Structure formats: C-alpha cells, structure tokens
Amino acid sequence: ALGALEVHGELDSTSSELQRRGSSARDFSVVLAETQTAGRGRRGREWLSPPGLNLYLSCLKRFDSGFAALSGLSLAIGVIVLRTLESLGIAGAGLKWPNDVLAIASRPSGGKLAGVLVELSGEYQGPCAAIVGIGLNLRLTPALREQAGQPTCDLATLAGGTPPDRNRVAAALIAALVEGLGQFERGGFSGFVADYARHDLLRDQPLQLSGPLGTFEGTGAGVDDRGALQVRLADGSLRRIDSADVTVRRT
Ligand code: BTN
After folding, report:
1. Where are the beta strands (DSSP E) in 45-193?
2. Where biotin is bound, by residue (predicted)?
C-alpha cells in the first residue's frame, strides 16, 4: 500500500477530514491531529480532544468486497489497539464489546482507554471504504476525566505514572493498523477471534443489555467469527447480538 501520512495542528475531526477527501484519498491514508474542535464519538456523542496529551487518528481503508463483507471490522480495530499496547509492553487493557478498550484494573465499572469509530461508505457489494477513527488516552487531566461523563483511564496510569512517548505510540498504532487492516482484508474477522477472546472483558460476566428490542439479562459467552456478541440466557439458550445499538452493562 502506498499510504499517506498527515499530521495537523487542529482539525474539526480527523475522520471528517478523510470524509471530505472522498475518492481522492489514497488507500491507507492516515490523518493525525494535535487537537480536534469537533471530535466525534459513537452515537452522536462528542469526543473531547484537547491538545498535547492524547492521540486522535483516522485511517482510510478501501475494500473491493463491499461492506457486506466487513462484519467484525470494528471489533478487529479494538484488537488492533490491544496489539499496539502489547507491542509497547503495556499490559492491563481489555475489550468491551463491540470495541471499547478499557483498563482491566478498574473493573467492574471499566475505565475507557480508547474509543473506536468506524464509518463505512460506498456499496454493499462493491467498492467501499472504511474510515477508522481512534482516540487513545495517553494522559488525562482531572478536568478532562470529569468532563468525560464516563469512567476513563489513560496509558500513563497503566504504565505506572509516566505516559509512553506519543510518537512511539502513534508509530506503533499505525504499524498495527497497516498490518491488521491488511489481515482483515485477506481473511475477515476470523483471524481476530482468538485475540478478541483473550481480551474479552464480558466473558462470563453478568450483563444487562438494552436496545430496540427491550432490556434483558444474561451472561457473556464470547463473540462469534462474525463479531456478534453471544449471551447465555437464564434458560441456557444462546442469544446472538449483532447490533451495536445495544447497550451492554455489567450488572
Ligand atoms: C467512541 O465513542 O468511543 C469513539 C470515539 C472515537 C474518537 C476518534 S478521535 C479520532 C477520530 N476523529 C473523530 O472525530 N473521532 C475519532
């Protein structure tokens, strides 16, 4: 892949920047910003993006297969972030379905280390593109923790107080993305299932799920090879959840 790397001082959002490029963006284009004025999270939430502390990165990947074949992509990105941390020697993180990267030490509430936002465009069964946005917390100020409105954590905490060098983290994340997105293109989510399972924080946990079909309880029973969450219900049956519209809470 040719790729392209851009580092901006300030953008509204690294993902919006790649969206504006549209078809002119090269495959594997990576955009980083020091700060974002309108960082976006999942479900229309805001992603606070002050300068100097964290990483805000988006990568555009094209697929010939159409997005019908991309189930599990957003979970694979969570695995890619975990692989990045492992390559940097940082332990103590895990995955909460579908793709939140949490610190294990802060169980059961879970402190969020990274957020992943995958946006697809193009055709269902033809050329398409994924814009993968990753926000990774290296060091959060007390004010930022407060503003976040949810439990958060940062790499500095996991690394024993000092955040790892930001350039090293960025380089490791880009390397893991290029490798991992290529792997996904060749084999889909199946090549990530084992790594996901090793880091699955919901496995064997009591869960409460709520979504368009109502609220129910069960026990986490892993993810399947398409990235759906399996939940064991009280009667012993398995229910497969493949909608990211479902909110999962440990009870
Ligand atoms: C989430 O809600 O957990 C996803 C957060 C994704 C944030 C990243 S930061 C880089 C990229 N640009 C954005 O505007 N959002 C993503």
Report:
1. 55-63, 93-96, 100-103, 111-122, 128-136
2. 36, 40-42
